[in-house]
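Dear Dr. L.,

I hope this message finds you well. Following up on our conversation about the binding site, I have prepared a predicted three-dimensional model of the protein together with adenosine monophosphate. For your records, I am including the exact sequence and ligand specification that went into the calculation, followed by the structure tokens. Please feel free to forward this to your student if that is useful.
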Amino acid sequence: MKIVLLGPPGAGKGTQAKELAKRLKLAHISTGDLLRQNVSKDTALGKEAQGYMNKGALVPDELVSKMLIERITRADVKDGFILDGFPRTIAQAETLDAMLRDNKMMIDLAVYLDSTEKVIIQRLSGRLVCSKCGANFHITNMPPKINMVCDGCGSSLYQRSDDKEETIRRRLDVYKKESAPVIQYYEAKGKLERINADLDAGVVLDEIIRLAK
Ligand code: AMP
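The resulting structure of the complex is given below.
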């Protein structure tokens, strides 16, 4: 099963993708996580990507697509994947399709997590992320049991530098301009399902699992 999760920042793509990967036994591939790993290891890609990420802009298609293809061809992806944060432009969607086609595969399902701006800003401005396992928490909606410590692995939590209100607004503008057209791309292919992602995370998860079956 090959699933892509679409939707604005803060719609819950990361949270849903992590759970889905566990339940459906698929690889979770987050281009945002891969880029942040490159930034923290100070790789050539990380150095190039960091400026774009800090501004809330998209990292150029060529760099992200190359990184994604390298990841998607690894052995753990053979049973399928959940893509979180990719494709974010039509060019990325076309690159992905061409790559899958060459390997006689295709995307089975595109889920659009539709969320209102009010909920997005509330979620992102309170989001806390585990520095080790990447689990997401929220200052008020889903606080960790111990202040700033991950319930799962015990590592420290941090607030992403691009989760500041000003950068969130810029990311939403970029999303509307560059990423929203990807929704129509999958709709035209008959692959798209929409879900109201303002609902409780558990309700959204059950709905995606139902669609994936
Ligand atoms: P995310 O963790 O998905 O919110 O991504 C964080 C940041 O990484 C984004 O704001 C972009 O700067 C960059 N990024 C992640 N995925 C992509 C992508 N598919 N294309 C371009 N930039 C990306």
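In brief: The two ends are 9 Å apart (CA to CA).

With kind regards,
A. P.
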